[in-house]
Amino acid sequence: MKIAILPGDGIGTEIVAEAVKVLNALGLRFEMETALVGGAAFDAHGHPLPPATLKLAQEADAILFGAVGDWKYDTLDRQFRPEQAILGLRKNLGLFANFRPAICYEQLVGASSLKPELIAGLDILIIRELTGDIYFGQPRGRRVAPDGNFPGAEEAFDTMRYTRPEIERIAHVAFQAAQKRSKRVTSVDKANVLETFQFWKDVVTEVGKQYPDVALDHMYVDNAAMQLVKAPKKFDVVVTGNMFGDILSDEAAMLTGSIGMLPSASLNASNQGLYEPSHGSAPDIAGKGIANPLATILSAAMMLRFSLGQPQAADRIEAAVKTVLSQGLRTADIYSAGTRRVGTLEMGDAVVRALQT
Ligand code: IPM
Ligand code: MG
């Protein structure tokens, strides 16, 4: 089992180190190789996704990814910005299916900004299409000025675009995921305004006919954003495009108390996957040892389940995370009165201990 370890920027290095510690405590054999990505790779090699990093990722069975980005790169030409690393990995590896579960751990019900009764027991799955839409439209990265800042320009644009096969394959992923859950899919679009999303809605509806056991409904994205805070438990599987999925998955993550808890998986057609926390690089707290490593540790569990064929090891990690939460250990983002505040390292150590007992 070959794993590419790409910690990236900001808190990425700290949280990935804890996930690696947890993987090493499982008693399985992994071949792990680490490489620079994002701003760290730009600083060292002049590119956020150097050829050697891409090659390592392509040859691995799975990729464990931290986070990329820092404000200090905001003035760079877009092709050199850290975010291009993750977009490049998604595109080059064909990682079109992004799973972003939003699960509310019972121990953290109080950490949410929503009323406990709204989110207790919440377990929804956002499936975001990840290699199409306005993120990869044509023309892409068009620049009026070489610094990417459009000085004196009168216009900038990005095109929104989906092809039928792109929509079909993500729809199949969503219906099949729903078959293993409560057999409901909500497809989120903006068909009242955008041609791209009328097409999305039509194609998802067509694919849905092959899954008569799954109930499909459609919702406009603005309404979905509202329903997510009004009655989140009414959702089960949500499938949507790249842009809407980016926004709704942050919103759904926060329902659960902290974005610091949520893992994600991005898979291609051969189940090779990239696993990363749903949160970003948080440069404001980088290096302080206070970031929550649990989303990354839970991403490693998803990796074991989806790409490495080790579902029992995944179960063990998830159980260990529940144990440390029950023990009352909390990083700053999920801290509440009466619990014990710990740092990144201590949290990782506690998960390792829980695994071993
Ligand atoms: C995410 C992030 C990325 C995205 C950025 C870092 C390019 O926000 O994974 O949700 O927009 O997809
Ligand atoms: Mg995002």
Observed structural traits:
Isopropylmalate Dehydrogenase, two-stranded parallel ribbon, 17% strand, ten-stranded mixed sheet, single chain, 357 residues, alpha/beta, binds magnesium ion, binds 3-isopropylmalic acid
Descriptive overview:
The protein contains twelve helices and twelve strands. It is an alpha/beta fold and 357 residues long. The protein has a domain at 1-96 and 262-357: 3-Layer(aba) Sandwich (Isopropylmalate Dehydrogenase). The strands form two sheets. The chain has a ten-stranded mixed β-sheet with strand order 2-1-3-10-9-4-5-8-6-7, sandwiched between helices. A two-stranded parallel ribbon has the order 11-12. Strand 1 (2-8), helix 1 and strand 2 (31-34) form a beta-alpha-beta unit. The protein is globular and about 50 Å long. It binds 3-isopropylmalic acid and magnesium ion (MG). Magnesium ion (MG) binds next to helix 9.
User: What is the terminal separation in angstroms?
Assistant: 25 Å
Largest sheet: 10 strands, mixed
Helix content: 25-40%
CATH superfamily of the domain at 1-96 and 262-357: Isopropylmalate Dehydrogenase
The CATH topology annotation of the domain at 1-96 and 262-357 reads as Isopropylmalate Dehydrogenase
Name the average pLDDT.
94
Taking pLDDT < 50 over at least 5 consecutive residues as the criterion, the unreliable ranges are none
Name the overall outline: globular
Which class best fits the helix and strand makeup?
A: alpha/beta
Number of strands: 12
Write the CATH architecture name of the domain at 1-96 and 262-357: 3-Layer(aba) Sandwich
Radius of gyration, CA atoms, in whole angstroms: 20 Å
Count of helical regions? 12
SSE sequence, one letter per element: EHEHHEHEHEHEHEHEHEEHHEEH
**What strand order characterises the main sheet?**
2-1-3-10-9-4-5-8-6-7
- Strand percentage: 15-25%
Query: Which ligands, by name, code or SMILES, are bound?
Result: 3-isopropylmalic acid, magnesium ion
- Tell me, what is the CATH class of the domain at 1-96 and 262-357? Alpha Beta
